[in-house]
Amino acid sequence: MSKLIVANWKLNPLTASEAQTLAESINPISKHEVVLCPPMAFLNLVKYHNLGAQDCSVEIKGAYTGQVSAAQLASIGIDYCIVGHSERRMGQGETDALINQKIKTLLEYKITPILCIGYGTTVEQDELEVVDVLKQQIIDGLAEVDPKKVVVAYEPVWAIGTKKAASPEHAEQIALYLKTKHQVGKVLYGGSVNSTNAQSFFEQHHVDGALIGGASLLADDFNKIIEL
Ligand code: PGA
User: 57 CB under 6 A from ligand 1?
Assistant: First the structure.
């Protein structure tokens, strides 16, 4: 079954030529929908048929130094934009209210938001507490937004960049919850997805794909995933 596979390069690689080489090494043909999200500085330099941004401003235009707007992303043909990644929630203090504004702005410019939600610093985190926080992130993040128009990436914080992915069954359970209780259209799983475990997530009925960090920087690994 065809999935949505999103590569989150984060603040990598260091140079434009490395970014171009990496994008050129990714197989352009896959039965899945593959989206590369390079750093903003390289967005217009790398060549790939489906590109996404890692963040955007709530503002559209004007005196907002250093920001990049949804209107500008739309003008260079960007179809997807990640918002609310835990590295931005924690590192930049982004709130659900701010993330909600970004989602509304993106939808106005016909860019599909990929809303990241997730909680828990250890795998043992109390399940009810986790669901409580996810619920709040969804309710506030998607306030006055049609949930069918948004892709939600469920990423337990403890699984990001740790080589300890959640179990596929857990991802499926959360995906089912998001779809039945919150009418979310598409749900991705993210957090230490690699070429060895990706298939087990893709086999889950309600998991529509993956958001991939570390493994998306390794062309061989990433190609194995998109060729599954
Ligand atoms: P990871 O990152 O695949 O390196 O765990 C995922 C993410 O942060 O989106």
Answer: no
According to the model, what pLDDT value does residue 151 have? 98
Q: Which atom of ligand 1 is nearest to the CA of 212?
A: 3
Helix, strand, coil abundance in the chain, percent, nearest 5:
40, 15, 45
Name residue, tokens 């599954």: 228
Helices (H), 123-167: 127-141
Lowest mean pLDDT among 7-11, 125-129, 153-157, 208-212: 125-129
CA–CA dist 217, 75 (Å, integer) = 26
Q: Cα of 1 to ligand 1 centre, how many Å?
A: 23
b/e string for 67-105 if b means 16 or more Cβ within 10 A? ebbbbbbbeeebbbbbbbbbbbbeeeebebebbbbbbbb
Atom of ligand 1 nearest to the CA of 165: 5
AA letter at 131: V
The neighbour count for residue 11, using CB atoms within 10 Å, is 10
Ligand 1 center to residue 7 CA distance, Å? 9
Q: Kindly report the pTM of this predicted structure.
A: 0.96
Instruction: Give the CA diameter of the chain.
Output: 47
- pLDDT tens, position by position, 119-170: 887 877 778 888 899 999 999 999 999 999 999 999 999 999 999 999 999 9
- Helix boundaries (H) for the chain: 16-25, 70-75, 86-91, 96-108, 127-141, 168-182, 198-202, 219-226
CA of 62 to the centre of ligand 1 (A): 33
